[in-house]
Structure formats: structure tokens, C-alpha cells
Amino acid sequence: MDFLFLIYIGIGFLAGFVGSLVGLGGGIIVVPALTIALNMDIKNAIGASLVSLISTSVMTVSVLAKNNLVHFQLGLLLVSTTIFGSFLGSYTAVFLNPKILMIVFASFMLAAAYMLLRKKKISEESLMDTVPPTSNALDLYGEIKKESGIKYFKIKRVKLGIGLSAIAGWLSGMLGVGGGIVQVPMMNLICGVPIKIAAATSSFMIGFTGLAGALVYGLFGKIDWYLSASLVLGTMLGSYAGSKAAVKLKSGVMAKILVAVLIVSAIRLIIKSQE
């Protein structure tokens, strides 16, 4: 078997594991790894990453949905604008300078890491024992498993979240990261969704955004199918392992892993853009 093929599978496994763990889809690993370690053109790396996002989403959600961590109603509302943004972002990236892509990518990663570091946990006082009657389709509630049993929380600022999801989709298509780099912090910081549920819901959404972006990159001949196939194999294995770990991992630990991944990847990309 081609040694390079094995390297791609290894990158895919790591990306799938970390991506499913924190809801970023793995692009946050794939793109820097291929561009920095293997000196690949960033546009080809993004194209391959977008294809691998689809397999990551399917494998991750198949595990997390069984543990009631995916908020499908919120995910479908947000992805309605994310897909549009993904098409636009993919089209933008095809014609954009690769070094500019790297700087934009790094900037958003550092901003997300900063916001997550400042985030306070959802207070126990805001949790409810039952869901109150609702008359508005945008009055959404979610549930979270606590030591005292199942508790419920209200999802805040849903309309703002829907609007910001278009930006997440734009970044997804442009950078090949699934939109989770915006969606997870946004759902957690703005909508008040616990990070574990935000990550799982983001994993559900990245399949849609990955498909939308991959269609554009494919039309412009920016997808290496040999590379993509090996990454898909790796990400499927990594996603399954990562999603199993995510079920057992504490939210605080998950947030710290996410921040570390964001900061390290951002610094490496900034260095790469200066070469």
C-alpha cells in the first residue's frame, strides 16, 4: 500500500477523532496538517477536507444521537442559512489568495478560543425541571443529563443564531472546516447551549455544509479524489472513536481541548502564511 495513502489515513483518523470530540468536523486538523506538514496547496487541502466532513458527520451523529446529545430542531434551523453561506464561501475561496485564506482562518480560530476561555458555565439556577408551554416555533428548549436527573434549558437568541450561521457556512466553504469553528462557540456563547450539545449539533450540521462546499470545489476541479478517499477512511474510524469518547468526556475538559486545538493550529497557520 502507498505510504502516502497511510499518512492520509492517519491524518484523517486524528482529524475525525478531534473533530467529532469538539464538533469542528476535523477540517481544523486536516487543512493545517496537509498545508503545513505536507506542503500541499491550501485549496486542494480544503477541497479534500470538505469531502471528509460528510463522513465525519454521518459517523459522529450515529453515535451521539443515541445518547440524546444532538438537538436536531436547532440544527435544521441553523443549517438552513449555513448551506447558502457554504456555497458562497466555496466560490469565494476558489479565487482568493491562499495566504489570505490562512490569515483569515487563523484569525477566527484565535477569536473563538478567546471567547471560549471567557465563557462561564450555564448556572444551575437557569435549568428547569420541565419545559413550559410554547406558542412560538422559535421557542426552543433542550435537555441535559445532570447528576440529579434530566434538566431542561432554554435556547436563547435563536434568530441571531440563524443569521450568524450564514457566516459559519461562508467560513466552512471558504476554509473547509465545516462551520463548527463558528457554530460551536456561537451556540455555546450566544444561544446558551451546553458545549457538549453544541458540539454534537454542529457535527450533525457539518455534513450539509461539507456537501455544499464540496460540490463547488468539485466543479472547479479542486478536489483530489485519491486524497479525499483516504481521508474519508481515516475520518470515519477517528470519528467513531472520538464520538464514543465525547459521550463520557466532561464539558470543561472538552472546552479546554477545543481551545488548545484552536490556538496551536492558528499559530502554525500564521507561520505558514509568512513563508
The whole-angstrom Rg is: 18 Å
Output the strand order for the largest sheet.
Answer: 1-2
What percent strand? under 5%
Instruction: List low-pLDDT spans.
Output: none
Structure explained in plain terms:
α2 packs antiparallel against α3, α3 packs across α8 and α4 runs parallel beside α8. The protein is globular, with a radius of gyration of 18 Å. It starts with a helix and ends with a helix. It has one domain. It has a two-stranded antiparallel sheet with strand order 1-2. The chain is mainly alpha-helical. Helix content is 72%, strand content 4%.
Q: Any descriptors?
A:
275 residues; mainly alpha; two-stranded antiparallel ribbon; 10 helices; 4% strand; globular
Q: What layout of secondary structure does this protein have?
A:
Layout: H1 3-22, H2 27-37, H3 42-64, H4 72-94, H5 98-118, E1 141-146, E2 149-154, H6 158-175, H7 180-189, H8 195-219, H9 225-248, H10 251-273
Antiparallel strand pairs: 1-2
Helix pairs in contact: 1-2, 1-3, 1-8, 1-9, 2-3, 2-10, 3-8, 3-9, 4-6, 4-8, 5-7, 5-10, 6-7, 6-8, 7-8
Task: Write a short abstract of this structure.
This protein is mainly alpha-helical and 275 residues long.
